[in-house]
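Hypothesis: this fold can be encoded by more than one sequence.
Test: take the structure tokens below, design a sequence, compare later.
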């Protein structure tokens, strides 16, 4: 029987699903899969890209855990592709490789002043509050008024983490350094800006509802943003998700809040924090003070163009803020030896088959799945179908697989050991997982994450 030795680089959902789908596929060859992950822990953005107060993520983690715990996929954690192991190494030991490295950088926002002190990328902030080992332990939370630019789920995650009272995060797996940082935050107002209207947002109804459940936080929406055009009304009437989002926003319009306390029929206790949603707002400029720090956010009011887009109205507004977070999308990173599309932040590919960027010809043995394949769009369902497409091509491309000089399973541990790579395995992840859960038990918490990489490795390797 033909043997397929496959390497997958990236142990997030995309990589794990690809491995699972291939092992379950009907095929006429034997499969051996090694999963390489640069961090000592698996699960990628499920562990390091989602706010800790999302309990539904536990269901995804459980599904990924089941796949890994079967024991038919080897995992090599704390191994950096391009440094600890290269494409030439993979060609010498495997028949093919699937890159599932995702997209973890912030997309840039090209407006004047965006480089000001106090201007941040949302992805970096998310990595901090999720306890990513490769970011600083502290975050400069000194602003009373903050702007968040974007109308997707990441923008809402960032806004919620900034506005939420930190003690309400204690039941979650929030790391200790993040708790201490957020506890000292003086924030009172978080302003979220989107360039289009309420019927065109990219976040999901569940994310939106969660905002409205924050304790001691007023949701502030503005009547001027709800003068819908025909396209918006049609979207609300025909799309259930848009309809639910509109229903939530309309309910918030009726709540007593900072913009209508005076007209409330009876006295209302004011919240200590406010979360403002501003629609029809095109970013123009970040203004700075004399010390080069963020002092305000300038935007232009937009309106529908009748074709699904927006046009500027010429009306310029300015909101005083001391910090800005851009949540306008994630972007992939280039991989040594692999073609890369700098414009879109992906590996150029045809349905997961890597292509040379100049000739569009196939790159034998190299495949992609997940966000490094299609860009940062879609949820878990998309990730599974995406992996199926890539795996189908890999199976059918048997004639163009690499012919490794040493396909033995013993060769990779030997190679990593020879290079003094302190790699971790599945048993090591179990040790780290149990250690984090045990740290949380005395406090009634799901877990307390280990943040320093060195400590993660020591626990995993039982050193």
């Amino acid at each position: 029987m033909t043997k397929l030795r496959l390497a997958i680089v990236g142990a997030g959902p995309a990589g794990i699903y690809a491995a699972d789908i291939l092992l379950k596929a009907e095929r006429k060859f034997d499969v051996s899969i090694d999963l390489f992950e640069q961090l000592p822990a698996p699960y990628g953005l499920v562990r390091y890209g989602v706010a800790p107060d999302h309990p539904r993520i536990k269901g995804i983690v459980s599904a990924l855990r089941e796949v890994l715990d079967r024991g038919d996929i080897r995992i090599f954690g704390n191994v950096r592709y391009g440094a600890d192991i290269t494409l030439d190494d993979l060609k010498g030991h495997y028949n093919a490789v699937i890159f599932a490295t995702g997209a973890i950088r912030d997309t840039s926002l090209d407006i004047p002043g965006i480089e000001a002190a106090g201007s941040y990328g949302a992805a970096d902030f998310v990595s901090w509050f999720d306890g990513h080992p490769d970011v600083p332990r502290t975050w400069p939370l000194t602003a009373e008024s903050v702007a968040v630019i974007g109308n997707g789920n990441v923008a809402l995650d960032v806004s919620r983490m900034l506005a939420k009272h930190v003690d309400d995060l204690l039941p979650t797996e929030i790391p200790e350094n993040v708790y201490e940082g957020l506890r000292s935050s003086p924030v009172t107002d978080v302003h979220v800006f989107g360039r289009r209207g309420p019927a065109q947002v990219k976040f999901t109804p569940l994310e939106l509802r969660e905002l409205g459940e924050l304790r001691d936080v007023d949701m502030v929406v503005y009547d001027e943003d709800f003068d819908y055009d025909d396209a918006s009304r049609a979207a609300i009437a025909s799309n259930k998700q848009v309809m639910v989002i509109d229903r939530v926003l309309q309910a918030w319009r009726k709540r007593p809040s900072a913009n209508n306390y005076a007209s409330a029929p009876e006295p209302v206790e004011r919240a200590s924090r406010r979360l403002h949603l501003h629609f029809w707002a095109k970013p123009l400029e970040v203004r700075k003070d004399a010390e080069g720090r963020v002092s305000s956010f300038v935007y232009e009011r937009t309106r529908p163009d009748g074709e699904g887009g927006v046009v500027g109205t010429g009306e310029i507004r300015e909101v005083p803020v001391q910090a800005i977070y851009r949540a306008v999308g994630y972007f992939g990173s280039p991989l040594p030896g692999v073609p890369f599309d700098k414009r879109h932040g992906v590996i150029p590919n045809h349905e997961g088959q890597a292509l040379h960027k100049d000739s569009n010809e196939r790159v034998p043995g190299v495949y992609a799945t997940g966000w490094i394949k299609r860009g940062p769009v879609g949820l878990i369902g998309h990730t599974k179908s995406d992996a199926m497409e890539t795996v189908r091509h890999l199976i059918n491309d048997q004639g163009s697989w690499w012919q490794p000089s040493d396909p033995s399973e013993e060769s990779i541990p030997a190679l990593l050991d020879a290079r003094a790579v302190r790699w971790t395995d599945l048993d090591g992840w179990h040790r780290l997982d149990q250690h984090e859960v045990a740290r949380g038990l005395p406090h009634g918490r799901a877990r307390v994450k280990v943040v320093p990489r060195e400590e993660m490795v020591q626990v995993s390797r039982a050193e």
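The CA atoms of residues 432 and 455 lie 10 Å apart. The mean pLDDT is 92.
Hypothesis status: open.
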